[in-house]
Design goal:
The protein has 737 residues and is α/β, with parallel strands linked by helices. The chain folds into three domains: 6-293, 2-enoyl-CoA Hydratase, Chain A, domain 1; 329-509, 3-Layer(aba) Sandwich (Rossmann fold), CATH 3.40.50.720; 513-726, N-(1-d-carboxylethyl)-l-norvaline Dehydrogenase, domain 2. The protein has 32 helices and 19 strands. The chain is globular, with a radius of gyration of 28 Å. The structure holds nicotinamide-adenine-dinucleotide.
């Protein structure tokens, strides 16, 4: 029999080699067709007397990425529609679909012939669950081989037996950690945990897998044998009593129960380990059906998988402009940001000319790459040769004429219009006319900087976040005259350095900083109300933010907050900044020299390591303190998220961001906006515009104009629209279809 996605070659010994190699795709994923074919192969292997057993591997570099989440998203969309018509029938279909993969993997596991997974490369999600249902597992030894069940990261969980097989193979604690974090394992780690049997040299992989069958591998899973014992001991045992209460506490500490999928994993494992395997699978199927219906799953799949991928592939890149292949890129200003930009550019294999006012300053910038690569080599993540290769791509200089031939220049000199003007003029004198000039400014409008350029069409903003090597978001800022070509080149560059671009129209603070400043300033307001600082920070974390607003101010520097406030007053007048908040920040900086983490004193004190940072006790002296029991903690959480979300609505209303995917993905990548919500706009969509409008009104009455709902929200509340309906990112494609 022939298949579209698999080939089956049975050798002289009767061992079938099943090679998964989907045509027209760079990676194998589970589609309905692939599932149907694989089930047919399982049936054939079981039925044919001449076949002794089977080895399954992949014909691609990776084994498989698992389920096709875009298909799952489409399916969930159909389910939501079907539920409106006939909830019971829709739920039944969903339940059956939720158990489909489990059913096939269980069929493989109990087919009576031995199966071995030969994992030649990255093996994720449903594909790793397939491997776990095989009787033997061998993984190739190599950097590119990563094993994981990462579903929890997009709001779902491994629902094809993953929550049952992992804790039956590995110690319960290690299993829980792996499942609830979505952690990636090396083959060695997976072997140590008991999840795979062997690690083989890549060219010996198939031979090792076949040898397992030849050596009499039993076609029975351990849990189907009499007398099977759980590696971590039963739930009701001394070991279980030591494990479960802290496990629940740890989950609450890590997630604040904001992630229903993570909670469901704990329930699946706990309940599943109390019963035989087939019953356990039913338990898993029920929870999986429940989780697939949560708004968290829908929002996270959309933002953290579908939209993220689309933006990374250049969804917002203008069509019809030929792709750029970069031969040389200039970076002007080798300071904190410029040094980081040079590093990520060289890491992408692009030669960089790194310019500063003098050679020592430029060389200091290059040293940043040297330090980062030395660290990578130490940790075994890069070789000495890779370090040398990267460093050889960076040319530190003070000579602008070296920019000759560059396709793109990124300016990261001081945040001063006059200094930026001089740098632009000097660079343009050396650049070819078609080169694109980008500024990394964080506050000066691109349109005004473009006035310094003889070629404003070629002028654009490429706004990085610090630390550049870690932060994956880049805002691409359009000036009034920026051309499509400049946008395309900027997008090609961001793609080349493997970061995610969002396209933003010119405005003070662009998108990210506008939102972040609201978050921090709401916290200053709370301090002024006498809310204990610890409650503010904890409320932020409980709401799902990775860093509290006061800690974030310390990271970015309290004196920077002061500078921004004073500059805003100079530009926009006294009313633009709350005087109470200004007083707080002035007091912190001018009276107490509390600049933030950089001088070890900010809203927190930073004692020498290993001691941990602690909130500065002096904060209590600044305002009469409310008693914790007099503070509405849930309202603090709501205020911190709502104040950001409302700013994002204003940004959409003003046309600064035009695509909801960018606001959502941008908010999660830049400042970690409560990922379970799917981002700033999905947060509102999840609550519903009308209800959110009511919330905003109430908060405005109590806490002021920051919560005033924009007209856009009122319109959406009236029409019942969501952001993804009102600003449908796929409208053009739909029209064309
Ligand atoms: P920095 O002070 O660390 O670095 C600026 C560098 O520019 C210095 O090395 C300086 O010697 C050099 N320089 C000054 N004039 C020059 C000239 N005429 N020619 C060549 N080099 C010159 O500053 P930074 O924090 O790296 O910020 C640089 C830019 O990036 C600013 O526009 C800033 O607003 C923006 N930015 C900063 C951050 C951040 O977190 N620091 C984030 C995003 C954007």
């Amino acid at each position: 029999m022939t298949y579209k996605n698999f080939t089956v070659d049975t050798d002289a010994e009767g061992i079938a080699l099943v090679t998964w190699d989907m045509p027209g795709r760079s990676m194998n994923v589970f589609t309905e067709e692939a599932m149907r074919e694989l089930e047919a192969i399982i049936d054939t292997v079981a039925a044919q007397a001449g076949i002794k057993g089977a080895v399954i591997t992949s014909g691609k570099d990776s084994f498989s990425g698992g389920a096709d989440l875009s298909m799952l998203q489409a399916f969930l969309g159909d389910f939501a529609k079907a539920r409106k018509k006939n909830p019971e029938a829709a739920a039944k279909t969903l339940f059956e679909r939720a158990g489909e993969m489990s059913r096939v993997w269980r069929k493989l596991e109990t087919c009576g012939k031995p199966w071995v997974a030969a994992i030649n490369g990255t093996c994720m999600g449903g594909a790793f669950e397939l491997a776990l249902s095989c009787h033997g597992r061998v993984a190739a030894d190599g950097d590119g081989v990563k094993l994981a069940l990462p579903e929890v990261k997009v709001g779902i969980f491994p629902g094809a037996g993953g929550t049952q097989r992992v804790p039956r193979l590995a110690d319960t604690q290690a299993a829980l950690q792996m499942l609830t974090s979505g952690q990636t394992l090396t083959p060695q780690r997976a072997k140590a945990m008991g999840l795979i049997h062997e690690v083989a040299e890549p060219d010996q992989l198939i031979a090792a897998a076949k040898a397992m069958i030849r050596n009499g591998l039993k076609p029975v899973a351990p849990w189907d044998e009499k007398g099977f014992k759980l590696p971590g001991g039963p739930v009701y045992s001394a070991a279980g009593a030591n494990l479960w209460p802290p496990a629940i506490a740890i989950l609450r500490r890590e997630t604040y129960c904001n992630y229903p999928a993570a909670t469901a994993i704990l329930k699946c494992v706990y309940e599943g380990l109390l019963v035989p395997f087939d019953t356990a699978q039913k338990i898993e199927q029920r929870y999986f059906t429940e989780i697939m219906q949560t708004k968290e799953a829908a929002a996270m799949i959309r933002s953290l998988f579908v939209s993220l991928q689309e933006l990374n592939k250049g969804a917002r890149r203008p069509h019809g402009v030929a792709p750029t292949s970069f031969k040389k890129i200039g970076v002007i200003g080798a300071g904190f940001m410029g040094a980081g930009i040079a590093y990520v550019t060289a890491k992408a294999g692009i030669p960089v000319v790194l310019i500063d006012r003098d050679i020592p300053a430029a060389e200091k910038g290059k040293m940043h790459s040297e330090a980062l690569m030395t660290d990578q080599v130490k940790k075994g993540r890069a070789t000495a040769a890779e370090k040398d290769a990267l460093l050889s791509l960076i040319t530190p200089t003070d000579d602008y004429s070296q920019l000759d031939g560059a396709d793109l220049v990124i300016e990261a000199v001081f945040e001063d219009s006059a200094v930026k003007k001089a740098a632009t003029e000097k660079a343009e004198a050396a650049l070819k006319p078609s080169a694109i000039f980008a500024s990394n400014t964080s506050t000066i409008p691109i349109t005004s900087l473009a006035k310094n350029s003889a070629r404003p069409k070629n002028f654009i903003g490429i706004h990085f976040f610090s630390p550049v090597d870690k932060m994956n978001l880049v805002e691409v800022i359009l000036g009034k005259k920026t051309s499509e070509k400049a946008l395309a080149v900027a997008m090609d560059y961001v793609r080349a350095i493997k970061k995610t671009p969002i396209v933003v129209n010119d405005t003070r603070g662009f998108f990210v900083n506008r939102c972040v400043l609201r978050y921090m300033s709401e916290a200053y307001k709370m301090l002024g109300e006498g809310v204990p600082a610890a409650m503010i920070e904890n409320a932020a974390k409980a709401a799902g933010m990775p860093v509290g607003p006061l800690a974030l101010t310390d990271e970015t520097a309290v004196d920077l907050a002061q500078k921004i406030m004073h500059q805003t007053v100079r530009d926009l007048g006294e009313g633009a900044v709350d005087p109470e908040q200004m007083k707080l920040i002035d007091t912190m900086v001018d009276q107490h020299q509390r600049f933030g983490r950089k001088n070890g004193k900010g809203f927190y004190d930073y004692p020498a390591k290993p001691a941990k940072k602690k909130l500065w006790p002096g904060l209590k002296e600044l305002y009469p303190q409310k008693r914790p029991e007099d503070v509405d903690f849930e309202e603090l959480k709501l205020r911190l998220l709502a104040v950001i979300a409302l700013e994002a609505v204003r940004v959409m209303e003003e046309g600064i961001v035009t695509d909801p995917r960018e606001a959502d993905v941008g908010s999660i990548l830049a400042f970690g906006f409560a990922p379970y919500t799917g981002g700033v706009l999905s947060y509102i969509d999840g609550i519903g515009a009308a209800r959110f409008m009511e919330i905003a009104k109430k908060l405005q009455k109590k806490y002021g104009k920051e919560f005033k709902a924009p007209k856009l929200l009122a319109e959406m509340a009236a029409s019942g629209e969501t952001f993804y309906q009102r600003f449908d990112p796929y409208a053009k494609e739909k029209q064309a279809a």
